[in-house]
Amino acid sequence: MIKPDLNLTIPDQLGSVHFVGVGGSGMSGIARLFLNQGYTVTGSDAKDSPNVQALRELGATVYIGHDAANVGTADSLVVTGALWQDNPEYVLANERGLPVLHRAQALAWLIRQHRLVSVAGAHGKTTSTGMIVTGLLGLGQDPSFVNGGVIESLGVSSASGADDLFVVEADESDGSFLLYHTAVALVTNVDPDHLDHYGSLEAFEAAFVEFSRNASELVVISSDDVGAVRVTAAITAGLSDADAAARVVTFGEHPNSTVRVHSITTTGPVSFSVAWRGQDYSATLRIPGKHNAINAAGAFAVLVGLGFDPAASLDAIAGFGGTQRRFELHGTVGGVSVYDDYAHHPTEVAAALAAARTVVGEGRIIAVHQPHLYSRTRLFAREFAETLEAFADQTIVLGVYGAREDPEPGVTGALVSERFRDPSHVAYVPDWQDAADYLASIARDGDFVVTLGCGDVNRIVPQLLASLEKVRG
């Protein structure tokens, strides 16, 4: 895959900008910001999509398919790490000597004059970013933002606001989150992931230490996650208690949290209270799941850290209605509801399915799991199996979505299914139509079907609904 030079000196002017892989939620959000600031934007993607259509309506020229001719007269190229070295547009840009920027470099360059709130962590970034943006808007602010998913209430993943504040989901997967000149950093957790890039847990955590130390004003960090606790110890080492308290705000269920979340009720939309500076503040979210109460506590800590009123901040956060591909309902056929979720790590899968359990009632949960990356599947096959078997009643495992990686011999979805203790609870069905038909054959009235993965598993949803329609419609 492409490994752009993150130390590249970016020219003062980028001219017209061409985005390779512009249809993704992150890339399309950045392209939207460039359009909003008057830049000429072109792009390409493997397939058409609503994101592509929206960019065209804003004035971008977007090609379907990758071809060197698509670059045209562009002055600079923006790429995503999911591309391959032989991408013809990338090859031509290098031949021409054009600046080739990782998407995070392009965003960092564009927002360099703003007061930046950066949200990082192995899980919960998109939801936490959406909560902060929703909270700021509810408080009468007008922030700019780039999120990794579309905020349902706004219908976009990015926007240019009039205020100085800029909220960004900061991707740790390839270290590019270290590019941002962050004022306030939120670290949702430091659960091990992306070890294919970092090589070790120690290197992964060291990147979060550097990210946190780079924040010029404040670090908001989980008090419950063991990795985050180690990061907190590293960034507060040598500081006085007073300096540490001014520099670092912790959040979570731990009794010593600066912002302590408690009294969590998960029946239906989650309700909870947060204790801060001797006062309790309560809220009920519009979305389910204990993990979202904790995400909301982190967003609350950011807003009060920015100086906003605590009660008003929590009320504003409670207006958050979710983001696309986070427990998103796509349809109900014959009493069977089909949801999609972006979860692609065992911890995320557990959180998504635990949230589903709080609202499924007497129905069962049927997980449709698409393993993401050959390396992650190899490293976490047992953890995925244990999590899926613990939290779902039945699981259908699809083939691996390789994304930026070449196939590895012997690494298939069967690595997950074979590790179930009870094989009657799982089926490895790599063919999507066969998987959809199998799902329809086992589904019962009241069941929740949840597709899981950050690849293209959401594209199977129409097939699932169609097969259900044939059997149950």
UniProtKB/TrEMBL annotation:
Residues 17-114 form the Mur ligase N-terminal catalytic domain. Signal peptide: none annotated. GO terms for molecular function: ATP binding; UDP-N-acetylmuramate-L-alanine ligase activity. Keywords: ATP-binding, Cell cycle, Cell division, Cell shape, Cell wall biogenesis/degradation, Cytoplasm, Ligase, Nucleotide-binding, Peptidoglycan synthesis. It catalyses: UDP-N-acetyl-alpha-D-muramate + L-alanine + ATP = UDP-N-acetyl-alpha-D-muramoyl-L-alanine + ADP + phosphate + H(+). One of its GO terms (biological process) is cell wall organization. The keyword Heme does not apply. ATP binds at residues 121-127. Residues 325-455 form the Mur ligase C-terminal domain. SUPFAM superfamilies: MurCD N-terminal domain, MurD-like peptide ligases, catalytic domain, MurD-like peptide ligases, peptide-binding domain. GO terms for cellular component: cytoplasm. It holds the Pfam family Mur_ligase_C. Belongs to the MurCDEF family. Cell wall formation. NCBIfam families: murC. This is UDP-N-acetylmuramate--L-alanine ligase.
